[in-house]
Amino acid sequence: MAELLYKYYQNLLIFAKQYRKFKVEKEYSDINDFIKSMRSNEYADIVFTDNSGKGIIMLFPESSKYTHTQYVRKLLESLKGNKIYMVYKEMVNSHVLKVIKNYNVKIYLHNNFKMEIPKGPNCYYHRIMKEAEVNELINDYLHCKTTNLPKIYDNDPQCIWIGAEEGDVLEIITPFSINYRLVIPSGIKNLVTEEIVTEVKKVDEAEEPEELEMKDEIEPEISSESSESSESENEEIKVKKVKGEGEEKKRNERKKRNESKKG
Question: What digits encode the pLDDT tens for the residues 124-135?
Fold first, then answer.
């Protein structure tokens, strides 16, 4: 187990140095020092600095007292003012999540550091685009809003490794295409899409009564035309009937005259 955790720790060092560009000030380069820290502190840490100040990455074993609120609160109070990354075997419970909301903390899982994710199988190159690049992409090429782009969650392993956060746009280069993704918060459905769908539904519902009204206006015209045509047809039938009766009467009269002449 210690060897496996140390492998995760080594990947965390790669994550910190190569991908996040942190300036690491404290690390365990020897597995024995790593094991000692795990036994005495119940975590192994990486202390660093970046543009925003000091920070610390803490890797916790599967069983740790730092899954309980009282210990987590005490630990975070001692590190107040630092950017804190806490790496657990599994997601902590809701009580611990309530505690960490008051601090600058991000929680990651062991699974995200089993390997160097960006170099893993079927993992393509992900890059956070600059604001100017995004504006050019949206305005000159795609002609859409950033919210219309396909989405990716900020807890996606690729996002974690490169430091992509909510609102960032990623360029993903594959052997066959270049794709773009908008980063949205994890644990939240695509609210932007839901809002768009809601707006479309509202427009559709607003248009439906107009269509019905138009039908109502058209239908009376059609019905009046049909009634007029039926009336004219009836009149034609009556005229034909009258004409037929008159002709028959004339034939009968001629027949009678011819018979009287013969007699």
Answer: 999 999 999 999
